[in-house]
């Protein structure tokens, strides 16, 4: 694991329980809710902890990502996701990205300490920058997420120069 990701992981672990829900508890937008219609939230395609680069690009934060058909979500942590499952619906506490129109690019040059990463470019305004940089502990995890994203979005474009 790279040094930057180790620092992020130990920082988050040391503050576990004292961090508020930085994603907020505000309800999902009508558009985000519409993306979840018809999805069985108890049957994700892939789940796991992924490091997401902060908006200012200065750090990576561990988040819990969940891939469903046509939709990628991330939560502050796994507990927030599990609470949604117990309630039987996802209403708040996460960000929702539609997969249609999404494309992925490999990152060159690599951010310091993030050896296994890729960037997701989003087709909508759920993210002000319309992109998210994801980093992983190892090459295998990176490939697994890329493979599953591709399987859910056959028109996904992989751009190599970014």
- Name the assembly state: single chain
Biggest sheet descriptor:
8 strands, mixed
Give the end-to-end Cα distance, rounded to a whole number of Å.
23 Å
Classified by CATH, the class is Mainly Beta
Number of helices: 4
Which range best describes the helical content: under 10%, 10-25%, 25-40%, 40-55%, 55-70% or over 70%?
25-40%
What layout of secondary structure does this protein have?
Elements: H1 3-15, H2 30-36, E1 46-53, E2 60-68, E3 71-75, H3 78-87, E4 94-98, E5 103-106, E6 116-121, E7 131-136, H4 139-152, E8 157-159
Parallel strand pairs: 5-8
Antiparallel strand pairs: 1-2, 1-7, 2-3, 3-4, 5-6, 6-7
Description:
This protein has 162 residues and is an alpha+beta fold. The protein has a single domain (3-15, 23-159), classed as PH-domain like, CATH 2.30.29. Helix content is 27%, strand content 28%. It is built from 4 helices and 8 strands; from the N terminus they run H-H-E-E-E-H-E-E-E-E-H-E. The longest helix is centred in the C-terminal third of the chain and has 14 residues, at 139-152. It is globular. It starts with a helix and ends with a strand. Residues 9-22 have low confidence and may be disordered. Residues 43-154 form the PH domain. This is PH domain-containing protein. It comes from Amphimedon queenslandica.
């Amino acid at each position: 694991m790279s040094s930057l990701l180790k620092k992020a992981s130990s920082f988050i672990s040391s503050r576990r329980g004292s961090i508020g829900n930085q994603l907020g508890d505000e309800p999902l937008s009508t558009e985000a809710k519409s993306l979840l219609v018809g999805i069985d939230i108890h049957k994700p395609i892939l789940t796991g902890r992924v490091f997401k680069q902060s908006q200012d690009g200065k750090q990576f934060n561990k988040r819990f990502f969940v891939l469903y058909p046509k939709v990628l979500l991330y939560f502050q942590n796994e507990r927030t996701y599990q609470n949604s499952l117990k309630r039987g619906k996802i209403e708040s506490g996460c960000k929702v990205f539609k997969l249609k129109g999404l494309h992925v690019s490999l990152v060159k040059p690599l951010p310091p300490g993030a050896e296994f990463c890729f960037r997701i470019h989003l087709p909508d305004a759920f993210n002000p920058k319309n992109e998210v940089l994801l980093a992983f502990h190892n090459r295998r995890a990176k490939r697994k997420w890329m493979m599953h994203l591709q399987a859910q979005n056959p028109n996904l474009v992989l751009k190599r120069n970014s």
